Amino acid sequence: MRKILIGAILFTVCLSACKTPKKTIVETHTEYIEVLKDTTIFLPADSSSVRALLQCDSLGNIYIKEIETLQGKVNSTAKVTIKDNYIIADCKCDSMSIYFQYKERHYKETTKETDIQYVEKELKWWQTALMFVGVLMILFVVVKLLLK
After folding, report:
1. Region 89-100 average pLDDT
2. Could you say which DSSP state residue 88 is in?
3. Chain mean position to CA 29
4. What average pLDDT does range 67-71 have in this prediction?
């Protein structure tokens, strides 16, 4: 009885086989696209004004004693006049446009999944012959055990 049990276990082990699972490879690529863009920036007209008090010293040199008003922004051209011991500077600036070029970057991430499939090779003639001999030996062992 023990020999029959061992033979049955060996018979099931000989008939079992291993199978490899399918493998999936995931590849991630990050690429960026750089786009060159042009634009024009318009600046509005601007004006500024300065009013200061001038005085003369004993030598006759004129100097600024006090700045009364100072108004304006960045871009301006000055027009200066001196009248009644006051200096008046008026500044005006036309509207202007600036040509500006900049780069825009867009990031794009792509994933690619690849399934690896295994292809079985055809058996050579001698491998087929060995399998046939193995089956005959298994049958021989089983018949031998059953006859005992």
Report:
1. 75
2. E
3. 9
4. 63
Domain that residue 101 falls in: 2-147
Structural domains of the chain, count: 1
Give the contacts of 70 (CB within 8 A, at least 6 positions apart): 49, 50, 51
| Residue 137 pLDDT | 92
For 43-61, give one letter per residue: b (16+ CB within 10 A) or e: eeebebbbeeeeeeeeeee
Spell out the SS3 assignment of 27-56.
EEEEEEEEEEEEEEEEECCEEEEEEEEEEE
Q: Report the run of H or E that residue 3 belongs to, with start and end.
A: helix 2-15
Say which residue the tokens 């001038």 belong to. 54
The two structure tokens encoding residue 8: 């049955």
Query: What global pTM score does this model have?
Result: 0.31
pLDDT above 80: residue 147:
yes
36, 101 Cβ separation under 8 angstroms: yes
